[in-house]
Amino acid sequence: MIKARITVTLKNGVLDPQGKAIEHALTAMEFSGVGSVRQGKVFDVELSGTDRAKAEADLKAMCDRLLANTVIENYQVEIA
Amino acid sequence: MKSAVVLLPGLNRDRDMIAALTKISGKPPVTIWQTDTEIPDVDLIVIPGGFSYGDYLRCGAIAARMPVLRAVAEKAEKGVQVIGVCNGFQILLETALLPGALMRNQSLKFVCREVKLRVENANTAFTRNYRPGEIIRAPVAHHDGNYFADADTLARLEDEGQVVFRYAENTNPNGSINDIAGIVNARGNVLGLMPHPENLIEEAHGGSDGRGLFESALGIAPRQPALAGA
């Protein structure tokens, strides 16, 4: 079995109102020096089989076709 | 003209849409279910608003991958008119039938209120019954209506007259870039908009400003004002 972690984040230049709200909350909680917060999503995916190259290609296709909206989001695939 | 309404689990404005199309066209629309792979011959397909598949992952993302949306895309390629309202607009963006994305409202709050829209392009199949620049009233109710597109896409939309409706008179409820409320595809047969014209089609709604959109799409002449005493 192959385990992978996919991280989806907003592209630079795309406004992130949720990240901004979290940033303000952290500052309100008196954590000093919070410059900026951008929020995103994490997917932990388990795949049957052992072919890592195929797994990576499949995971990227999953990101392109469903897990990320590439109009506004970037993704990163890490295979454990 | 025949119309159809797409039904998906989690949509909740389907009944309003069916009622509006029935009242305006004089006959009820065909309804199409999520697993349908073929859509009967119709002139207009409408995807109504709501929270398809619980808005999981991203608004409209799961719906856009259902078989019925492939069928809608095939019809759109053949030139059939398609309207997506609210969640329907989000779904059309997720299928890439329209460019851009809808993000969380800038206020982070769900907005449910009335806004003003300017008809930016009255030369489309969906707006020909309005006057260019006409300001109309429209209800909105959404959490993710903050339209975004990259600079190139935005320039193309603006240059080609694909921005059909813009929030007017400082009523942008969600932070949409360039106050965009509704757009059409390059071919002009697919419209997506966040406001709910189906909820303002008769006096019982408090106005009929939304009626012109459906009358335009269905090829119905605007209603003449009633004669005094008639």
Q: What can you see in these coordinates?
A:
The complex is a heterodimer of chains A (80) and B (230). With 80 residues, chain A is of the alpha+beta class. Chain A has one domain (2-79): Phosphoribosylformylglycinamidine synthase subunit PurS (Mth169, Chain: A, 2-Layer Sandwich), CATH 3.30.1280. In chain A, 35% of the residues lie in helices and 30% in strands. Chain A has two helices and three strands. Chain A has a three-stranded antiparallel β-sheet with strand order 2-1-3, with helices on one face. Chain B has helices at residues 14-25, 67-77, 87-94, 151-159, 211-217; strands at 3-7, 30-33, 44-47, 81-85, 101-103, 111-119, 135-142, 146-148, 163-168, 180-184, 190-193. In chain B, helix 1 (14-25) links the parallel strand 1 (3-7) and strand 2 (30-33). Chain B is globular, with a radius of gyration of 16 Å. Chain B starts with a strand and ends in a 13-residue tail after the last helix. Chain A binds chain B through residues 14-15, 17-18, 21, 65-67, 69, 71-72, and chain B through 57-58, 61, 65, 93-94, 99-101, 103-108, 146, 148-150, 175.
Which features characterize this protein?
heterodimer; A: alpha+beta; 35% helix; elongated; B: 230 residues; nine-stranded mixed β-sheet; two-stranded antiparallel ribbon; globular
